Amino acid sequence: MQSITYLAIIVRGSRCICCASANFPYSLGTRHFSHKEQCEEEELLRYIDILTAKLGKGSSEEQTLHTLSNDHACDAIPLSQNLVHSLLHRYKDDWKSALGVFRWASSRSSFRNSPESYDMMVDILGRMKALDKLKDFLEEMHEGGLVTMNTVAKAMRRLVGAGQWVDAVRIFDDLQTLGLEKNTVSMNLLLDTLCKEKFVEQARKIFLELKQHIAPDAHTFNIFIHGWCKVFRVDEAHWTIQEMKGYGFRPCVISYSTIIRCCCQEGNFSRVYELLDEMQAQGCSPNVITYTTVMSALAKAEKFKEALEVPERMRSSGCRPDTLFFNSFIYTLGRAGRLDDAAYVFKVEMPKAGVAPNTSTYNSMISMFFHYAEEKRAFEILKEMENSGDCKPDAQTYHPLIKFCFKTGKIDGVLDEILKDMTNKQHLGLDLSTYTLLIHGLCREDRCNWAFSLFEEMINQDIIPSYRTCRLLLDEVKQKNMHQAAEKIEDLMKKL
Ligand SMILES: *[C@@H]1O[C@H](CO)[C@@H](O)[C@H](O)[C@H]1NC(C)=O
Ligand SMILES: *[C@@H]1O[C@H](CO)[C@@H](O)[C@H](O)[C@H]1NC(C)=O
């Protein structure tokens, strides 16, 4: 113990003069503290490097344990929960190494794995479908009295995710031997896990047995409503509302909205209207999310006239709009080609309702105007946005602008101005989608020198282009006999 602490101090001292001086009582300012934290972080990363370098890839649980236990450098590393978590995270796709690391940590005197690490291990084993190991591990945890509801939730989720719902039910049946209770909460957990993975019929059967001993609550029924909707069995979902009432629970906005969303996905709007009426009749008024869902779905189905009746309906029910609703409303008006109405909503109705626009609102307006080749109006909105305090443009804001340049062939002097604006004036880093848009556009315009320089720029920032982008650019540079460029692209493609 003594020597470990000592080593930690030495290592830290040798890492950073500044941190060593943190031991002086006089220099413990907050700035200093964050610097100290930063150094600890670096130290952690260094330990991880040492350990992972030792481990290599794909060794067995025993091999990993053996390697780590018999290595002086590893043995000298002071263990912390943080370090173990980081390692488990690192090996989340390699349960053998993860379990080896876990065993090694357990074997160190003066260290105990935390409950979080145990649960992480459960998750890793479940995710990798090492289900026999998982069951052994749970047994072992149980012997140590370490199984919590959180552990059970993780194990069940992974088992059901692997299709082994029977095993998940078995865990539930054994809850009492694991020292946990079978009650409404744990029952709901089981049912929810089953329903989320579309085992709603199985959940139903289990519920019919369990309900004789365990009382359901409103949440139980909402779980079933979700479950039935997930498999598009709207009749059963709707019927569950009746059942819920039979048990004396009031269906809530969420119960109904779930079914409405499902009907929207199915495109059964007559049923949507029936449900909206039913909600109102039940004294369970739809909320702004419900209305937004319906309006967006109608717009997506290109039923613009009906979509634009939703705001009217909402207003008459006294429901207040929010930003998301207005964004969807503006988008719908745009899709319907009603630019002036969209502009009116943006300029007049939103301020009147006291709802602030956000970046997405501006982006919708800009994109709409460009789509209808009303670039003058688009630029006005962009200018307004650039000058507004609250809604800064993001990379998305400039996409319609960039597309417009390509469409109209305004490349020289215009496109570079836009990019300069983005980076110098708005301090926006170009992201993957922006680089992709630019490279594809420039290739089409026969500007592969420029495209390639952007390609290099993105690589330098560790933004990895898609295979398709590489392929496209490669064909272009080959045509231009840019051999070095071609080699670079091919090198990257090998790694993809
Ligand atoms: C739409 O829902 C109604 C029930 O409200 C049902 O009778 C009808 O068959 C459904 N239509 C489609 C296309 O699923
Ligand atoms: C704008 O607001 C909506 C609703 O609150 C939100 O969903 C969306 O992510 C916001 N967009 C941005 C860019 O902040």
Automatic annotation (TrEMBL):
Q: Which family does it belong to?
A: Belongs to the PPR family. P subfamily.
Kindly state which keywords UniProt assigns to this record, in alphabetical order.
Answer: Repeat
Q: What is the lineage of its organism?
A: Eukaryota, Viridiplantae, Streptophyta, Embryophyta, Tracheophyta
Keyword flag Repeat:
yes
Name the source's superkingdom: Eukaryota
Residue windows of the PPR repeats: 217-251, 252-286, 287-321, 322-357, 358-392, 431-465
| Protein name in the entry | Pentatricopeptide repeat-containing protein
Report the GO molecular function annotations.
mRNA binding
Q: Which organism is it from?
A: Psophocarpus tetragonolobus
Known Gene3D superfamilies for this protein?
Answer: Tetratricopeptide repeat domain
